[in-house]
Amino acid sequence: MTPRTGRLLRDLVDHADAASRLVSRGRTAYDADEMLRYAGEDLLIRLGEAVARIDRDDSSFVDQHPDLGLRRLKDARNLVAHGYDVVDPAIVWTILERHLPMVADRVRRLLDGPARPGGA
């Protein structure tokens, strides 16, 4: 992993943390508040852009780590950015609530590196 890829992955985790705060407001608030829905879409764009930059700078990284689920974030970004008029808020919510926490957890584990015996 290049230093820039590491920085972009940390950015991805930071954006995932922001998405977690958005999700913590609840689905009812999300559905009722256009600005929360726009914020969710913006986070998907930022997340997908981080993946796109990783892909450009370290072209084999995303393919070498299919378990991270990064490609799906890039695809979601493209849908929101280019098909903003047909985006289903329920799909955005599902990505933010269900898919993204798993991706963020896997990325955190990758960034933290392998666990050392004895916790050292």
Describe the structure.
InterPro entries: HepT-like, HepT_RNase_toxin. Keywords: Hydrolase, Nuclease, Nucleotide-binding, Phosphoprotein, Toxin-antitoxin system. One of its GO terms (molecular function) is nucleotide binding. It comes from Isoptericola dokdonensis DS-3. This is DUF86 domain-containing protein. The protein is mostly helical. The protein has one domain. It is built from 6 helices and no strands. The protein has helices at 3-23, 27-32, 34-57, 61-64, 70-82, 89-112. Helix 1 runs antiparallel to helix 3 and helix 3 packs across helix 6. The longest helix has 24 residues, at 34-57. The radius of gyration is 15 Å and the shape is globular. The two termini are 23 Å apart. The relative contact order is 0.17. The mean pLDDT is 91.
Poorly predicted sequence stretches spanning 5 or more consecutive residues:
none
Mean pLDDT: 91
Number of strands: 0
The level of helicity is: over 70%
Radius of gyration: 15 Å
Concise description?
This protein is mainly alpha-helical and 120 residues long.
